[in-house]
Amino acid sequence: MTDIPFIPFEAGEKLLDWITLTDALAEGHSLPKAEIGDTFLYRDPDTLLSRAAWIDGMGMAVKSAIIFPGNSAKGKPNINGGVSLYSDTDGTLEAIIDFHLVTKWKTAGDSLMAARRLARPDATHILLVGAGTVAQSLHAAYSAAFPQARFTVWSRTRASAEALVKALPDVAIADDLESAVRQAEIIGSATMATEPVIQGAWLQPGQHLDLIGAYRPDMREVDDEALRRARLFVDSFDTTIGHIGEIKIPLETGAITREDIIADYYDLSAFTRTSDEEITICKNGGGAHLDLMTSRYILAQWRAAG
Questions:
Q1: Residue 107 reports pLDDT greater than 50
Q2: Which of 55, 158, 199, 210 is deepest in the core (most CB within 10 A)?
Q3: How many of the other CB atoms lie within 10 Å of CB of 92?
Q4: Looking at the structure, do residues 281 and 295 belong to the same domain, yes or no?
Q5: CATH no. for residue 36?
Q6: Where in the sequence is the domain holding 241, given as residue range(s)?
Q7: Neighbour tally for 266: CB within 10 Å
Q8: What is the mean pLDDT of residues 34-57?
Q9: Statement to judge: residues 296 and 260 lie in one domain
């Protein structure tokens, strides 16, 4: 019996590349559409979230996130978990991969795939809205595709922005969000906002926005005007429409219509910029199918490295 590998964060990350990851995600979307399902179990205040996906031709993955909010008081991480990856041919377990490794590369890689297609390739100024862990991942991902770009970060709290700049010295801090938005060519927003922080009136011709932060029905990062001014895309119809406030709320109020959402990643040929002046937005909703695609890429890199 072949040993089943466990792929830890640091050893696995050394083998990965943002550009080849997005190529793998694109290839994954050429396969039959994924079947996905989420399961939640609770023991107040703790949560077990299992996200499963099955793609014909790629296999199956179950990503388990175990959330213990009280761990921080004990000096332990609040979120732990892993991804179990199964063979498409016989259903056997092929690998167990660190939860944080898959989540980091899936989340930023998801948005980078849109930016590689929708942002102007000559973009030289990238704004990160929010200074958390995802902002660091976005910085690494965008840097791979736009090596000529300079970065600015805005955060509600100056301390968090300063902490990010300490980790990433090439990033400048913006004190005024409106001014920072107006000057950027690519905007990656990863906040916990429930009310829009980015106003459509601030947007400028030629900009591309990746919206990552909102994941609940009550969460939004941009206002209705921003959505109306842009050509609007999502990574997955199934994980955004009816689920995430960024799309759900304006659809319900009539601010946008279903026809305003041009495509998701199962129609990648539609992810093109039609002019240098147009504004584009892609909403990153995530989903277990992206965890599966990312995990399969990680395992392939692990095997290639011996």
A1: yes
A2: 210
A3: 11
A4: no
A5: 3.30.1780.10
A6: 111-286
A7: 17
A8: 94
A9: no
Helix axes 18-28, 99-118, angle to 10 degrees: 80
Looking from the CA of 28 toward its CB, the CA atoms found within 13 Å total 28
Task: Report yes or no on 1 lying in a domain.
Answer: no
Find the CATH number of the domain harbouring 270: 3.40.50.720
For 218-296, list the strands marked E by DSSP: 231-234, 280-283
Has residue 156 been placed in a domain? yes
Supply 280's token pair.
Answer: 């584009």
Tokens at residue 40, please?
Answer: 């939640």
First to last CA, the chain: 18
One domain, residues 134 and 195: yes
**pLDDT tens-place string over residues 160-177:** 999 999 999 999 999 999
136/93 same-domain check: no
189 burial (CB, 10 Å; 0-12 / 13-18 / 19+) is: buried
pLDDT at 72: 85
Provide the domain count of the chain.
2
Whole-number Å distance between alpha carbons of 36 and 44? 26
Whether 144 and 262 map to the same domain: the answer is yes
Q: Which of 138, 183, 129, 134 is nearest to 161 (CA)?
A: 129
Alpha carbons 64 and 80: distance in angstroms, whole number? 8
At residue 241, the pLDDT reads 96
Q: Are residues 71 and 20 in the same domain?
A: yes
On the question of pLDDT at 34 being above 90, the answer is yes
Which amino acid is it at 161?
A
What is the value of pTM for the model shown? 0.95
pLDDT at position 240: 96
Question: Residue 1: pLDDT above 60?
Answer: no
